[in-house]
Amino acid sequence: MRRMRSVVLAAITAVWLAATALMAVPPPAVPEARDRVRLKSDNKVEGTLRTHADADDLAALDAQLLSKTLSKAELYYIRYLDLHNIPPSNRQNYYDIISVILNGFIKERNAIVTPAWGGPDNTMIRVNLFDYRIDPKAWDKLGEQDPYFHQIILKQDVVTKEVQTEELEWYKTGLYYGSDINKPEWKQRYKTKQVVETSKPVRKQVAAGWLHKDPAGELGVLLQTNFPILRADWFITNVTLEPNYSNFLGIKTLDDLKKFGGFDRRTAPEAQPRRRIAVRADVISNAFFFQS
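and the corresponding structure tokens:
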């Protein structure tokens, strides 16, 4: 009972801290069509990031450096959060909020992990999902709603096929009567024609057109995901909503909730051996300009 009270109190405290901080964080707006011209801009200012394309390029460069040291299995858990649109004076607040939210997903309540934070003017956060026991599939599920690094297109498949008509035609069979080459065999058959069919439009999510194609593609391949980077303010707003929050916690049933809260002593966190494989400290300190 004492442990249950402490777990509930800790959960309430974490949610209260995040909610209090979020009161000062306005929800991000979905980019309107008029904003996309700005998003496509390649204008840069020395020492900072100006566009979503810049942020994607930066994440791709960092992931490329990490790939020289980390295994493919470790890279599978690496993701990025972009702070370039947040005023420099407010980025520390956003970082603190994100750290509180991420640590709320850790099942071992005695563990606190701070995400890596760096880049020009501290505009990028690197998250190791394994540190927070977050299933990469939960991140990707959230990413399916992202409007900043992805866009929805209507895709149609065009298929050309042969169809039979009602009109007959004569054709040579390749045989001859009485082996006389001057008497070829003729037969009739229905004519065919080519028909081009277009499938019904299907909504498909792809990398945004305002990103640089090569870095965006490389980043997704390295991290084995279509959603390697999300905007930090958008992440804060949406990860705390259902069903995203439960997905990140790995809670699908009441039994999962009991296990997470430690109500079942057989599966309580202290009854399980602790596993800590994450981005190693030497890698964190040496990769690009990130610090943890």
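(Above: one complete record from the training split.) The first strand starts at residue 78 and ends at 82.
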